[in-house]
C-alpha cells in the first residue's frame, strides 16, 4: 500500500497532487490549441442532436452532482441551452418531464451508483438521449448510455472525491465548448482563447499546489472548529458546496455551502467570532458583490478565509487569511478554486486524527439505495 500511495501519507493527498496530470490526461488527444481543435470522440455522433436539443438534464449524486452544477453555468453561458441539475435519487422517484430529444447527462466517478443508474433507465424509457461522464472505464453507466466521454482521471481510491471532480468539470467544459461551436455561437477567437487557457490549467493547478504549506498552516488554526460556512457566487457557488462537502465527509465538522447572497436569509445568524467562513472570491463578474459579503461577515466578527485571484489587493485588507490562485478564464475558475478547499479539508481531517481515506459511514461507490 505504501508503494501505491507513491510516498504520500494518504491516497487523498496523492490524488489531490495528481490533478495537474489527471487534468492533462483528460485533455490529451482532445484539446489542441496550436491546431485550433477540440475533439470528443465519444460524442461525435451525437453532437448535432445535443446542439439541437431544447434542454439538458444532468443527473448525479454527491461530488458528481456538484460537477453538474458547475456544468449548468458553463453550458448555459456558452451553449445557451437550459440546464437542470437533479439529484438522481430525487429524479427517479418523481414523474420527471422528459421529452424525446432531451439530453440527459449522467455524471459518475464509479459508473456504478445505483440511483444514477436508475435515473438513466427512467430517462431512457422516456426517449431521452443519454450521455455519460464517467471515470471507471467499462463500468455499468458507460455501458448503458448512448454515448459519452470518459474523464480519464485514473483510479480514485480516497473516498472523498478530488481528482475525479476536476476531471468531470474538465470534460463537461469541453462538451459545452464543443456544443457551442457546433451551434455556431462561439466565435473563433473566443474558441482559440479557451483552448489556450485549457492547456494552461495543469500548470496553474501546479501553482495552486505550491501553496500547500500555507494552507496547512491555516488549517492548524481551524482544526478545532465545530462549524464552517462556505460561500461563493456564480461558478464558485458549486465550489462552495464541494468545499463544505469535503470538510464534513472527512473531518466530521459540520459545514454548509451557500450562495454568498443567500447568507442574509439564514446563515448570517450563525456568524460570531467562532465561525470560520470560507469565501471563494476570485476576480469575476460578482467580485464587487462578494467583497460586500465579506464585509458583512467581518462586521459580525466572523473569521474569513478567502480564496482570491493572485494580485488581489483589496480582499487581503479585509480577510483574516487569503489563498491565491492564478488568473484564468472565468469559466475555468472552479478547476483552480476547488484545490485549496480540498487541501484545507485534508489537513484539518489529518490534524483531527480522522481516517481521511476511509471516513466513517461512507462508501466510495454506493450501489444500494
Ligand atoms: C459516494 C462517494 C462520493 C461520490 C458519490 C457519487 O457518496 O463517497 O465521493 O461523489 O458517491 O458517486 P459517483 O461514483 O456516482 O460519482
Automatic annotation (TrEMBL):
Positions of the SIS domain: 46-185, 218-359
GO molecular function: carbohydrate derivative binding; glutamine-fructose-6-phosphate transaminase (isomerizing) activity
Example GO BP: protein N-linked glycosylation
Coiled-coil regions, chain positions: none
UniProt catalytic activity: D-fructose 6-phosphate + L-glutamine = D-glucosamine 6-phosphate + L-glutamate
Keyword hit for Cytoplasm: yes
Keywords: Aminotransferase, Cytoplasm, Glutamine amidotransferase, Repeat, Transferase
Active site: 364 (for fru-6p isomerization activity)
GO CC terms in record: cytosol
Main location: cytoplasm
E.C. designation(s): 2.6.1.16
Intracellular or extracellular location(s): Cytoplasm
Uppermost EC category: transferase
Function: Catalyzes the first step in hexosamine metabolism, converting fructose-6P into glucosamine-6P using glutamine as a nitrogen source.
Complex formation: Homodimer.
Name assigned to this protein: Glutamine--fructose-6-phosphate aminotransferase [isomerizing]
Source organism of the structure: Siphonobacter curvatus
Biological classification of the source: Bacteria, Pseudomonadati, Bacteroidota, Cytophagia, Cytophagales
